[in-house]
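Form P-L/3: holo structure prediction, ligand coenzyme A.
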Amino acid sequence: MKITQFDKNEHDRKSFDCGNTELNNYLKCISGQHEKKDISRTYVLTSELNPSHIKGYYSIAVAQVSLCELPTEIAKKYPSEITCSLIGRMAVNHTCQRQGLGSILLIDAIKRIIQASSAIPIPMIIVQAKNEDARRFYSEFGFVSFPDNYLKLMMTLAHAKAMLKEAEH
Ligand SMILES: CC(C)(COP(=O)(O)OP(=O)(O)OC[C@H]1O[C@@H](n2cnc3c(N)ncnc32)[C@H](O)[C@@H]1OP(=O)(O)O)[C@@H](O)C(=O)NCCC(=O)NCCS
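OUTPUT (holo model):
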């Protein structure tokens, strides 16, 4: 199994189906444009046996978070609006769901963001859940919902680093 940057010449995006039309269409129609315009980066999980077949993917972009959106005890630690990393989309092919691949993708995304944060400071990771199932998936890892937007969740980078350290032990 490997996770690499999406390449439309190498990866078969047409056969990807996670059961959510919007997430399927993002991979098929939008991710390439976003890549070209430096709006987001998409990473795909494939198997060694069939490297063109996409088992799952995620995309990372940036997002502005205003302090009034955050819980007061977190907001008071920051001087003004903050720029965060956004895991905007994540999906696993419907034939492979509930086999741990979503967890592998999420950990990989967090590791990638932590690595990038040594060059560009990133105070927080934001995820946008599409539904209650996805919210539960993210909250299992310690992501916490925004007070006024249950499906938008956050994790400080310090928390993400601690979570990974704990997972590795
Ligand atoms: C949400 C999604 C990415 C999770 O990927 P996955 O490979 O199925 O998840 P995992 O097998 O790694 O699950 C890890 C844990 O997350 C939780 N979880 C995952 N899917 C869940 C669901 N549908 N309902 C409730 N909890 C869920 C469970 O605690 C699960 O552990 P368990 O299987 O031991 O109970 C995947 O199911 C998916 O692509 N769904 C459709 C598209 C979608 O909604 N994407 C989210 C976009 S925001």
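COMMENT: The pocket of coenzyme A is lined by residues 18-20, 23, 90-92, 97-103, 129-131, 133-134, 136-137, 140 (CB under 6 Å).
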